Amino acid sequence: MVAIYYVMIVNILYFTIMGLSYRSISTISRRAKYSSYNTLSGSELVPSVSLLVPAYNEELTIIENVYCLMTLNYPTYEVIVINDGSSDQTLSVLISEFKLEKMANPDIRGTIDTENVRGVYYNSDYPQLFIIDKENGGKADSLNAGINLSHYPLISSIDADSLLEKDALIRMARMYMENPEETVAIGGDVRIANGCLIENGAVKKVSLPRKIWPMFQSIEYLKAFLGGRIGWSRMNGLIIVSGAFGLFRKDYVIAVGGYRGGYPGEDMNIIIKLHRYMLSHKLPYKVAFCPEAVCWTQAPDSYKIISNQRKRWGRGNLKNMLENRGMLFNPKYKVMGMITVPYNVLFETLNPYFRITGLLALIGYTLLDMTHWRILLTFFLLNFLSGYLMSVGAIILEEIAFRRYKKLSDLWKMLLFSALKFVGYHQLGVLWRVQGHIQYLQNNNSWGTMTRQSWKEESKSA
């Protein structure tokens, strides 16, 4: 009975968050069609931004990424690529492509501790581009090194295997300018680029992935970002801004000590630290989500790579929840303490164990003839139906506000994979999270192998 009540409660919460997303979608739809971004992009009132791009062994994607970032529709910004001790040719391809030279006395003004910076590279022909070469210290350490060099009051973290839409940053800035005093962070929408046609560092034609693993992730991302983060943002309870694309006020990031190094989950950790800081100092604030600002990223396309990624996410989530357990049901932290953190602990961190023990209990009751097999079947069907409706709800949000997938066959494909992910993929997610927790207990801090594919190769396959 405990398992049944648990599933009922978690589904009620899921649908409540989805309902908040639907309450916001009309405003988002109007904002997504806003026609004055071109004039706004030339305004001197738009705040300047430093784009921080951590790069470790990214030689296959980094050039397209940099060209994409250097051609955004935005008045004043800089691109800072941080080579985190790569063992491949990441640094050399950047130096060769942009004819960079090592700066004699780079102006590094920040004071956040990082691994040793070996040099900063620059070419006056590309005045907005800087390359930091440093010893390996991880993604968080790279972001801190970028903050130390950055010249502008806003910073944006962007993955090196990602491509921003040309108006993504200006859409973020418009949301920030609506309330610059209180907005401390804004998350962008992350979508799967596998299967899309890529030309000159931009997504020219949107299509769904052709491989099964990225396809499952496309559905998963739609549900998480459109069905979840819109709703959490509405109640100011957003616990994570994706490391692939986020915008932050630099002064507050520095005030909380920068990004936490040495462990995965730095994107969740920085948001939790910002919540804690603002609430502890009784400062009005907002952590927002901007779904019309889109970042396209390469998704893992093999079992080994996606399993490594999800184990890492599991470790990061567990680490963050243990570090911030003092927020659990603590009214001092308002929505974060009373809703977001308890939800995350009970229905994200501990979710695999409730599911596994609940399943074993129901099977045991059936084998011992303590319940009827029809009850077991009904339970599974209801569980499947609720999860499927959540995915369908996210697809409907996509169709209402954005309609990026133009073909009718893409819609049917999304509906099909929304069902298929409950036959194997969903169960693997539970397994990966448990394995991630085991790795945490073993003090395993490894990042795991992430194999990239050149955007040109990705485009050929599309």
Q: In which range does the helix fraction lie? A: 40-55%
Shape: globular
Biggest beta-sheet profile = 10 strands, mixed
Rg, rounded, reads 22 Å
Quote the average pLDDT. 90
Share of residues in strands = 15-25%
Low-confidence segments: none
Number of helices: 16
Q: How many strands appear in the DSSP assignment?
A: 12
Structural class: alpha/beta
Which strands sit side by side, in order, in the main sheet?
A: 3-4-5-2-1-6-11-8-12-7
Strand-and-helix sequence, N→C? HHEHEHEEEHEEHEEEHEHHEHHHHHHH
CA distance, first residue to last residue: 48 Å
Task: Tell me what the structure shows.
This protein has 462 residues and is an alpha/beta fold. Helices cover 52% and strands 15% of the residues. The protein is built from 16 helices and twelve strands. A ten-stranded mixed beta sheet has the order 3-4-5-2-1-6-11-8-12-7, sandwiched between helices. Strands 9-10 form a two-stranded antiparallel sheet. The longest helix has 31 residues.
